[in-house]
Amino acid sequence: RMIECHLEVDPKGYITSMFVLSAITLPVDLFGVYCIVKKSPPIMKEYSRFLLIYQICATVTDTWTNLLFIPIAFLPFPIVYHAGLFFSRTDISYSYFFITWLCLIVTTMGSVVQLFIFRWQAMLMKDHVLRLNKKLIYAICFAFFFLFNGAVIAAGSTMPNRIEELKPVYIQNYSCIAEMVNFRGVQYFNLGDYRRLFFVTTVGATVVVTTALFLVYLTSRSLQTKNVSQKTVDMQRRYQISLILQVVIPIFVVIAPGCAVMMFGAWSDINVSISYISQIQVATNVVLSLISCHGLFGTVIMVLVNQPYRRFASDCVRACMSICMRTKLTEMELRRRRSSQVRDARLSSLAANN
């Protein structure tokens, strides 16, 4: 007996909102890249390199999510397709674009770890036992990169599209899946493979959050034990707070809800969740939209908490307002001249008639 359910097979509102978000996030993210490259003071030179890596990763992830890829997942069913600019509605044997998206997410999360490692190391005295060589720091960062991405690729490479095997089963048992019988590019996965991929990604996110919090603790402890002036401690504490605001807040606002929804959707029983299938789809779309704004949130906070970037942004806003005001005044002057010319012409015409 077929189970009745309803899914929005082609969520046009969600897809349109993603394209609109891409028009907002990409310019803002690129503005953040420009600020780091051109407006970082010499004192931030080394730190700005790590910050630039994070900003580029966040920019690419945002653009891939809300413009090039646009994932559409029908949780709790292990069924997905993508509606972005890259090969949408195309039948492929493996979910290469989905794996690429998860790799971009875990790479961005890994760049968060390297930011906190650098900040922690900057707080330690040169003769401190935990002070690491720069080459070792780079090696740790590369290790995080290969570990996270290797785990995702390994889990994804064992997850082929089982459309021929699973599509008839789902179409026969669920009316909402039967609605997409003629849809191209839809991918059907084994539930166990699907869960394994989400589990690996969530473990990576958990490692990042735990490591970041631990490094925040170590840095705060270093500030308390470091034999420097109070002025230096206050300055370093401001740097630490700005980093926490810039990186940790977007993680908890975006990545944590994303992992929670994905894990819930992947592990919930289909027959139990079927009554809430529409609500789950809406929640999934909202969370995916938030994930696509991760770089936007990070850029806005970065500009607000770093004085050189904030000053440059203020100058840009003032310059734009000045241009708009000059344009408006010019238009008003042109209208005034035209009306004056029309009035003079009418007076000349009246004088000629008299």
UniProtKB/TrEMBL annotation:
Protein name as catalogued: G protein-coupled receptor
Record bears the keyword Membrane: yes
Membrane spanning stretches: 14-37, 94-116, 136-156, 197-220, 241-266, 286-305
Entry keyword set: Membrane, Transmembrane, Transmembrane helix
Top-level lineage group: Eukaryota
InterPro entries attached to this UniProt entry: 7TM_GPCR_serpentine_rcpt_Srh
Entry keyword annotation includes Lipoprotein: no
Signal peptide range: none
